Amino acid sequence: xxxxxxxxxxxxLGVLLAIAxxxxxxxxxxxxxxxxxxxxxxxxxxxxxxxxxxxxxxLPLWRQFADFLTGIFTGRTLGTGQYALQCDFPCxxxxxxNSLPVWDLLLDRLPVSASLAVGAxxxxxxxxxxxxxxxxxxxxxxxxxxxMVGAVAAASLxxxxxxxxxxxxxxxxxxxxxxxxxxxFTAGPVTWAIxxxxxxxxxxxxYAAMYARQSRGSMIExxxxxxxxxxRAKGMPERTVVVKHGLRSGMTPILTLFGMDLGGLxxxxxxxxxxxxxxxxxxxxxxxxxxxxxxxxxxVTLMAAFFIVVANLxxxxxxxxxxxxxxx
Amino acid sequence: xxxxxxxxxxxxxVTALALGATACGGATKNDGxxxxxxxxxxxxxDGKIVGGTPAKGGTLTVLSNQxxxxxxxxxxxxxxxxxxxxRLLYRTLVTFKAEPGKSGxxxxxxxATDLGTSSNGGRTWTFTLKKGLKYEDGSEITAQDIKYNVExxxxxxxxxxxDYAARLLANTKGYTGPLTGKHLDSIKTPDDHxxxxxxxxxxAEFSSIATLPTFAPVPQKQEKGAQYDARPFSSGPYKIDSYxxxxxxxxxxxxxWDASTDTVRKAYPDKFVVVMGLKGxxxxxxxxxxxxxxxxxxxxxxxxAPSAAKVLPKPAVKERLVAELSGCTTMLQLNTSRAPFNDxxxxxxxxxALDKEAVVTAGGGPALNExxxxxxxxxxxxxxxxxxxxxxxxxxxxxxKQLLKEAGxxxxxxxxxxxxxxxxxxxxAQQGLGKAGIKVKIETVxxxxxxxxVGAIKSAPEMxxxxxxxxYPNGSSFLPFVFDGRFIxxxxxxxxxxxxxxxxxxKRLDEIAAMPDVAHADKAWLDLDAQILAKHxxxxxxxxxxxxxxxxxxxxxxxxxxxxxxxxxxxIGLKDPKKNQG
Lengths: 328, 582
Description:
- The complex is a heterodimer of chains A (328) and B (582).
- Chain A has helices at 2-29, 34-39, 45-54, 61-74, 102-137, 142-156, 159-173, 189-223, 226-233, 238-266, 270-276, 281-290, 294-322; strands at residues 76-78, 85-87.
- Chain A is built from 13 helices and two strands; from the N terminus they run H-H-H-H-E-E-H-H-H-H-H-H-H-H-H.
- Chain A has two domains: 41-91, no CATH class; 105-291, MetI-like (MetI-like fold).
- In chain A, strands 1-2 form a two-stranded antiparallel sheet.
- The radius of gyration of chain A is 24 Å and the shape is globular.
- Chain A is an all-alpha fold and 328 residues long.
- With 582 residues, chain B is of the alpha+beta class.
- Helices cover 27% and strands 18% of the residues of chain B.
- Chain B has 17 helices and 19 strands.
- Chain B has helices at 2-18, 29-39, 79-88, 143-152, 164-168, 206-209, 280-289, 308-311, 315-318, 344-353, 356-362, 397-406, 423-435, 447-455, 479-483, 503-513, 518-533, and strands spanning 59-63, 94-96, 107-109, 117-119, 124-128, 187-191, 194-198, 238-244, 248-253, 271-275, 297-299, 321-334, 369-371, 412-419, 438-445, 463-468, 538-549, 554-555, 573-574.
- Chain B has a six-stranded mixed β-sheet with strand order 13-17-12-16-14-15.
- In chain B, a hairpin with a 2-residue loop joins strand 6 (187-191) and strand 7.
- In chain B, helix 16 packs antiparallel against helix 17 (518-533).
- The longest helix of chain B is centred in the N-terminal third of the chain and has 17 residues, at 2-18.
- Chains A and B meet through helix 2, helix 3, helix 11 and helix 12 of A and helix 7 and helix 14 of B.
């Protein structure tokens, strides 16, 4: 178990390093010049050079990358003198745009994306698994077909369409909810939830549909296993058969899916956050991309990669819990 | 004014159709036209203050789709943000009157007692500060603090701000700002209330330049380097209570600001709250509806074109639309460095062929933009642009064909590169030019890459859409940037996208810049504008408007002509401050 964990963690680091390197190179070959973008409307060549030097962009690429990597572990100083920017461990650099440490920006935005992701995940698990299991148990009935047609419909609606329709219907026409503005959980759970309700629904609808179809399939497969027949033959209550034997084994592929999805969403839902005006990681990323703010793009990319690989790792470890046959 | 109304009249019908906004189907053509013109923001809200005079108190909310790029006065060089900073957070040596229309371009002393006095043939400018000016902590504003902030504009740590100090002050070579402990000799502060600028050439319009946020005070002991951006120290009527980047900015009153020292800022609301990161279309909808607290809200970003159809046909909503001219001219710039537009005749043909009326319609009609007939925007030409060429608004394709024939080029094949958002306008231009036998291929580029794409002069296309917004209403802030051949850069070329390198023009630019008398120079800039126009390096196309909606309880709202039509935050407030608070 321990060696397995260590091996996997080494793999995580390798993936992150590779992603950082690729992102670095991509920005290096892009025509956009962050120094010119930061400098201003009419930037004299001398000033442009001074700015480039200040941002460390006059150094060779390998050196910039090395500085970035060491900065993560030891912190680093940008600029010189009394007002130099001190970037402490774990230093992911400073935003070219607003001179704030990337790490602080990420920490600042993460609660928003996490609120969105966790709420939506809870919703889609309940809806998706519920619909999937019911459909599986009532296979080929009207209920099954209705649920699955609904799922296909929901899965084929792009999230921007659902979002805009929700805003139009619920906010503009019905006037039931206010236009969403993010409030921290600490400011009051009710305000927090009311403002996130529509984004949750928009995201959850999409995912729930996929989960419903996936869990229906797994459930049908699981319920056809011989041990289900055995359990039934032993006279177990149907409820125990479904939940303890059927659902548990049918969950394994869902768990894999869920780990990836949640990990990806924690690093920001660009479209949903933009449409609902939520200041999360996704919007940070989108803004940074349009201004060629490389340190921020790199930071978000690394964070996204981190969440996805770690979620994968957690999922693999959880297999051992869900499926007693799996041992590491 | 008469001329403008007539243009509005002539084009409103077209626009109303374009927007699907013909509400008055039963009315006769004439009545419909008149009614439209009277209620059209292009005509009606020009120079008008929306909502009357505000009462003191309450919270005014600003709904925004973005964060401020920079609030640090040394780094603030985005017109709408300059207005916001200068009117609410920091005062400058000189500023502009808080009045709509033409008088908004007039200078008034702010921190200084007058507009400054020049000596040494315009190479030395001296300002005296008013007594009793205070920062938010009650400490005194001194001349040294203004010098300090001007020096800050040189620091490579503090990017993005106006670079006029670097271009005009004497002996600045190699200077990289005060953060490393070095100071400039060309700014002298003989006492706490006197500041003297030594310039590298005579500058008659230095009073106008002293309106830039570069000339706001920053006390050295408040210096935080790049982090100052998040918490500029206030010398204006409000101070920052909290600022969560990209989320929310809250301004509260600065108790040490003394209204008796300030002739410009009215400071009506008790509080300003800027909510950021909202979706543009949703902001439009919220302010159109003006439900609950949204009645006290104004919008930061321009109203979107799709919302025009929800606003223009409804008089009650249209009344709340401020749409001042943005003070920027959009031009069709012709690449004079190579064929076919190295031939003035070919350029002149484009000048005649362009159907500006169609371009205006494509850009949302007269509510959102109007036809340009000269380069310098109306804020610099006494409120109305001269029309020296007298070409019909829809163009004169016959004359253009004639000119092309004379040039020996009966047909032209050219490329027009525009940013993606300008595609509709480009297509309108393409159609007009096509009538005269000028075949235009349109290439669209993502806005983020646009300047890089058209700024590489070797690969630059034959035509681009280029705009220029002056930093202050004076020819020196416009014509040299757009038509001085010495400003052309190999890459990242901006402004002079025509690559216009004309000896006579450059000589005249220098002569006017050296004129000691502003009024004299103003006249000369105007003449030069017409002289350059007669050489056709670019076709003045449109002057944009800045459409901004305000809530039903908002008062004192007008677009300031200098800061690209942004709401003047000096005078805005609420009709009834007790309404919908909390």
